[in-house]
Amino acid sequence: MPYVNIQITREGATPEQKAELIKGATELLVRVLNKNPATTFVIIDEVDTDNWGVAGQSVTVLRWQEQFTSGVPAGIPA
Amino acid sequence: MPYVNIQITREGATPEQKAELIKGATELLVRVLNKNPATTFVIIDEVDTDNWGVAGQSVTVLRWQEQFTSGVPAGIPA
Amino acid sequence: MPYVNIQITREGATPEQKAELIKGATELLVRVLNKNPATTFVIIDEVDTDNWGVAGQSVTVLRWQEQFTSGVPAGIPA
Amino acid sequence: MPYVNIQITREGATPEQKAELIKGATELLVRVLNKNPATTFVIIDEVDTDNWGVAGQSVTVLRWQEQFTSGVPAGIPA
Amino acid sequence: MPYVNIQITREGATPEQKAELIKGATELLVRVLNKNPATTFVIIDEVDTDNWGVAGQSVTVLRWQEQFTSGVPAGIPA
Amino acid sequence: MPYVNIQITREGATPEQKAELIKGATELLVRVLNKNPATTFVIIDEVDTDNWGVAGQSVTVLRWQEQFTSGVPAGIPA
Fold first, then answer.
1. Could you read off the pLDDT of A50-77 as tens digits, one per residue?
2. How far is B61 from chain A (nearest CA, A)?
3. Which domains does chain B have, with CATH numbers?
């Protein structure tokens, strides 16, 4: 009866993509640990980019910086 | 000073029901472990049915399936 | 299919007390929101007192202070 | 590569204040544990006052009570 | 930069199995949402069976009941 | 009454360092959002390196790789 919590930034994941995450995470627990899928929970949290920080900055700011460069700034994760 | 997090699907819990959950969880910690209610936190997360998966499917899909059957599909929790 | 996470300091809760928390939290969700107990999860986290802070101090320090006073210091939760 | 989750009531924190929380939490981990800021995550959850309970009541009710008193009720945290 | 938290009962998952969970969850996020694996975190929590409840009982009790029956009790998840 | 959860790998943080994290996180919430320190909780989770994954590998493996290179492998966070 595992519980899986997936946290991502809210940047347009579709219901189909979220369904794939649910299916994939459940299958992973079944395959690796032989868990019962009927009691495997997967909860997806979509977090506003103002509320997710990395490298000391909000993702809102990081995305804005990326627009003005040719890609992800060196050393800052995408 | 306990912290209780209750995660449920967002399916119409009313403010009165949420107040009952807060009151009940607080009283539980006071009764069982003699905790101080003034510093017992209860946080309720309501999760969209697209974002909650069980048995490898989103609750959105499960609820839709239930509408076309006489009840909860065998082996799938309500 | 709710998920309840109860976080308490690790200060000697017995298996019987933890079983009461599990039973009580499950009954609360059944009573208030008519949830199915068979798919209600309750997870208890016991946290070392060095790792739990309140009022800017660890609970280890707070408990030590309490030993040298007649009770909980004013304004600091028990 | 620490992960920091800050939960607050949704009561008007501005993007600038949230950016300060992200910056401050990241710097704290760098200063105390020499963590790499590029892989320090800070996630802020803003919780509706109906969904946050303390002292057995929702913060919605507590805030309403405060309006009719000269301050925070005795023994109830702000 | 997703964060994935997998909670399972502490019942003997090996380092190899946990490595598979980490690899599989990371690949899932890369495949479905094109996330950067270098900044995908996977945290596994192993929870004592006394501290995990389902159907109002601890998993410790459920496992003990299973030993005396031919399988999982009807309606109680494995 | 904020709640802060700090998750780090279990790699020898001392009680003094954890006390600094508690103090610093509490002060941050007081300074930025004028929160009441008496009801600010900080919970630190120390996670075994087998149970923390990044870049699809456990930190146990990453640390072992670092021992055989002059530093952090390119593109993998420290």
1. 999 999 999 999 999 988 875 555 444 5
2. 9
3. 1-47 (3.30.429.10), 49-78 (no CATH)
